Every structure is written in C-alpha cells, then in structure tokens.
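sanity check this record:
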Amino acid sequence: MGKWSELGLSTQNATITAARVPTDKSFLQYYDEIHIPLSISICIFGAASNVFNIIVLTRKRMRTPINILLTGLSIAQWLLATNYFLYLLLEYYRCQCVQILWSEAFTRYRFFNVNLNTVFHTIAFTTTIVVAVFRYCALKFPIQANRFIYKCQPAIAANVIIWIIIPIISLPLFFISEVKIVARDHVAYDLQCEMEGPLYDLSYQESPLLVSAVFWAFGIVFKLLPSLILSILLIALIRSLKSVERRRKNWKRTQGANICTNSERKAKRKLTTRPRTTRMLVIILLLCVMVELPMGILNLCVAIYGEEFGNRYYDPVGNLMEMLTLLYSSVSFVLYCTMSNEYLSTFRALFFPWARKNSLRGPRRSWKNRHEEASKSPRTFLINGTAPSSYVGS
C-alpha cells in the first residue's frame, strides 16, 4: 500500500523499513521502531477510557445536549481505537513473517479495516465541530439557543445525521485501493524471511486521476476546510467565554452582595463553576485543530505534488501523525475527570460506590427553593451569558 495514507496505510512500510534502516538514524526512524508497541498501548487506554465515557455520559443525570454529542464522539473514538488496535496486531505479525496473514482473506480484511479507520476518524472530527457550534450558540445566543437548538432532540438528530452522512461521503475511499499479488522476492528482501505461495498486499488503483481526485477531496473537504472552520469556531468560543466571564464578574459585584438565601448561594456557586465546561471543550477543540490542520495541509500537498511529495515528506511523519491522532482520541477521559466535577462525581458513584454512596442523588431542594429558582427571569440568563443549568453540558 502507498506509504502516505492515514490511520493504517503507512504502518506497514515504516515497520518493514525499520528492519533495515541505516545505523545513522533520525528521530523519526527511531520512532518507527516503537510506533507499534506505543500505539497499541494508546489504543488499549483509549478503548477502555471511551467505554467509561459512554457509560458515564449516558446516565440520566448527565443527559444534556453537549453530553449527547460527546457520547457520539466517544463511540467513534472507541471504534477507532479498537479497529486500529486490531490493525496493529495484524501488521506486527505480518512483519514477523506469519504467512497466513499475507493471504487474500486477511488482506481483504486489512482493506476494510484501513478505510473504516478513516471513516471513524472523520465521524469523530465532524462531531467535534458540531460540539463547537452548539457550545458557541449557547454562549453567544443563550435564550434563542435554549428555545430552538440547545435541546436533547437536536443533539440526537445531529448524531444520527453524522453517522449516516459521513460513511456515504467516505465511500470513494474504498475505490482507490485494491488487493494485489506481490512479488515474494520483494517481501523476502524487506522482511528478511522466506514465505511460500502467493502473497497479497494492498495497492492503489491504476488510475492516477481517481487517486488524485480522492486525495483532493480528502485533503480539502475532510481535513483542511473543517480544520479552518474549527479554528474560527475555537477563536469565537474563546472570545465568547471571556465576554461571559466578564459579565459574570459584573453580575457578582452588583448582585452578589444581596445574596442571602441558600438557593441563591447555590445558584452563585453554579455560576462560578459553569465556565469549566467551556474551558474543557476549548482544550478538546484546540487539540483537535493541532492534529487535524497539519494533516489536512499534508494531504493537500500530496494531491498537488503527487507521490514524490508523499514519499519524501509525508511518509517520514506518517506514523507520528497517526500516533498523535490516537492520543488525541484517548485523552478525553482525563480531561473530563479533571475539569468536570459532575462527570467525576458520576464516575465515582458508578465505579467506586463505596467512596461516595449518594453522589448520583442530587441535593434535595425544598419547594420554596425550587420556586425561587424557577421565578428567575430570562434576563438573568442574558446577564450571565449562558443557558439555564438544565441545558448546560457540564
């Protein structure tokens, strides 16, 4: 298979080459030697952590629009980590000259595995953009978003649409590669071992125009353009967050001194901790942009300059970029635990019930307190710059 594809198509060649690199190695050549064990470790952690995310975010008390979208994101990242883990195992033993893995059946499995990796990754990327849109609307237009967008039904619909549309758009990826018989002498030279019988591997289609067209579409439509959109949303989200915090400080100065009841104190505490959700999402979006934007530029350059550019520039960093993609897909659990008190308390209640027996039960509120909170006018939310707490995906 060509060296400079994403999430699975570059591992084989880099691993084969690692067996016969010169003694004067660069950093990337050293990294190629540890790519498979390191990526396997990240995949195991990512698969386990995203299972935790799915379990926690689907609890009844956690069902908010943002959390519904984050559940779809965790499902895509879990599928990516699991699928890529199977690919890495297969690739490792192929390079150990296990002949059955060079059969036509296993090579066809690699064909679907590699392309599904790209599909799952694109679903996760698209979901991240939708999360940014929802959160920006909640900060910039809290009342309007609360009425029309920032509800559970639109979030569920967005997840369903993403999981239907992205696989359909990704279908051309399945037509640019095929299973072919490879020369045994070439494999024996690369792997320094002998195998009998016909050997199969993945190769690009003979049509350079088709391959170039798909790379153009992939580099621009799937990578570069969404990365630029996400960058703009990220900047807008940061500016909106600063504006909200500034208005919240002004509100605390003007009204904080008059707070006297327990319900108002609790409301004030919620106002001071609510920006944590947006800060957490900003970090997730920033990591996504840092990984996706360079890959989009590289894919675009491959489409413009052809295979020579891919072999010279993309191939040396292919494994490193794939590892960073896997790492980004695996760190959400750590961010949720460190930046969301509600997530952490729900996680502890589910998996460590002896440590906090009653964390799933929210604090009991009297009828008087509920009446006082319900009587707050919509103007309060405009001053705060955020949606009501029942719609905040904290």
In short: The longest helix spans residues 208-255.
